[in-house]
Write a structure and sequence with these properties.
Layout: H1 13-28, H2 62-73, H3 82-91, H4 97-120, H5 124-143, H6 150-169, E1 174-181, E2 184-191, E3 201-207, H7 214-227, E4 231-235, H8 241-244, H9 257-268, E5 273-283, H10 286-296, E6 302-306, H11 312-320, H12 335-338, H13 348-360, H14 366-373, H15 380-386, H16 394-397
Parallel strand pairs: 3-4, 3-5, 5-6
Antiparallel strand pairs: 1-2, 2-4
Helix pairs in contact: 1-11, 1-13, 4-5, 4-6, 5-6, 9-10, 10-15
């Protein structure tokens, strides 16, 4: 449905705001309803003694509620305290990014100071655990911060520093390094699994998506991989959160096979890598990045695409409900327009999502950002290339036997 031009009376502001919110938030996460129904009436206070005054409730705003659930989900591997997250949520104003940033940044600072105090007393395990919680609190604050705002890099680097401190506290075989992307180094982490000994072992590479970080990826997937005997490499590319901490104007590129080649060149050169057992996992929009890499990279022996995305533009449009790439130029919104749109038409949360979308795709307008997304696809040529030797299943197509490959599990 066409949107009213910027210079005409806004006769359908709620509908227009809903479309814009959907199109902006769809790039960050598949969440459409930015302003969900308010929770039901709160129950009347119970009479007499109560064991708890906590009533578990999230946010009416669907995107902020998702981010709260995201934070809570990391509790399984030590990235958050459930009770602390719920307490923070009570102090955050619904749908207000600045309120979210302030609360989680303050929590991260408290947790980091506590971790440092524990480390000074020689309590390495307690310090490690608290550093990980602080790391993830800073990441949560980083999420809602605009990529050109200096606090975005500051919060992200605090998260990175806390993670490194946690790894040192537990004596982890952890390396922070970079992959050479022209004049721009791309951050990466490598963890050698101590269970492997001197023998070459299986390796898992993981790449996140639009707003995940290396540290969050370790909490959500990497720690589990290490427990299951994998060497682990976490990588990131242009436009991703870790890279933006150092290079905020470096935009996404469609050709993630170029980043994949750098990563595989690096990991296969390590003496502990069994070249027959190298897998790649992509998370969220990293499902596209990983699929694109695998379509061009025969050295990979397994792909885990979560989600399996071969056309990022089509994927985004399906969530938005319309294609901003087709909107008339008169209805397009440029970077210079965003701060002049009334808050009643474009809430603060949607405003920052739209701004970040344009910047991270290297475009000047909303329409141009979605036009750029059309280039983010896995084409037939790449798929044909992936079927060529030495992929293990290609031998059967040639009439030969499959190469014996040790199982991953």
């Amino acid at each position: 449905m066409p949107l009213p031009p910027m210079n005409q009376p806004h006769t359908s502001l709620p509908r227009r705001r809903g479309f814009m919110a959907a199109a902006a938030s769809s790039l960050a996460l598949p969440v459409l309803a930015q302003n969900g129904p308010a929770p039901g009436a709160e129950p009347k206070p119970a009479q007499g003694l109560e064991r708890s005054r906590t009533r578990v409730a999230g946010f009416a705003d669907a995107e902020m509620d998702y981010q709260l659930l995201r934070q809570l989900g990391t509790a399984r591997y030590g990235g958050a305290s459930v009770g602390e997250c719920l307490a923070l949520a009570q102090r955050i104003q619904n749908g207000d990014p600045a309120s979210w940033i302030a609360q989680f940044a303050a929590a991260g600072a408290r947790q980091q100071a506590d971790a440092q105090a524990r480390a000074q007393r020689g309590h390495a395990h307690s310090a490690r655990d608290q550093y990980l919680v602080a790391c993830n609190s800073f990441r949560a604050a980083e999420y809602y911060s605009g990529v050109l705002d200096p606090q975005h890099a500051r919060l992200g680097l605090h998260s990175r520093d806390c993670f490194a401190a946690a790894m040192r506290a537990q004596g982890s075989a952890f390396e922070a390094f970079t992959l050479p992307w022209g004049d721009t180094p791309l951050p990466a982490y490598y963890f050698r699994n101590p269970q492997a000994g001197t023998r070459p072992g299986k390796t898992l590479l993981i790449i996140s998506g639009y707003d995940g970080t290396l540290e969050e990826t370790w909490l959500a997937y990497g720690r589990a991989a290490l427990e299951r005997g994998y060497h682990l490499m976490l990588l990131t590319g242009p436009g991703q959160m870790d890279t933006l901490r150092f290079h905020p104007r470096l935009a996404f590129v469609p050709e993630y096979e170029r980043i994949g080649k750098l990563a595989l060149d690096h990991v296969l050169a390590r003496p502990g890598t069994d070249a027959r057992r190298v897998a790649l996992m992509g998370i969220s929009y990293g499902g596209y990045f990983a699929s694109r890499i695998a379509a061009h990279e025969p050295r990979l022996r397994a792909l885990i695409a979560n989600s399996p995305i071969v056309d990022l533009h089509a994927y985004m449009v399906s969530f938005a409900g319309f294609d901003p790439a087709e909107m008339p130029d008169a209805q397009d919104i440029h970077l210079a327009d965003i701060d002049h749109i009334p808050p009643s038409e474009l809430p603060a949360q949607t405003r920052e999502m739209m701004r970040n979308l344009m910047l991270r795709l290297g475009q000047d307008s909303f329409k141009q950002a979605y036009q750029r997304l059309r280039q983010f696809r896995v084409d037939d040529a790449g798929l044909r290339a992936s079927a060529a030797p030495p992929w293990p299943w290609s031998a059967a197509a040639r009439g030969g036997a499959l190469d014996p490959i040790p199982p991953f599990h």
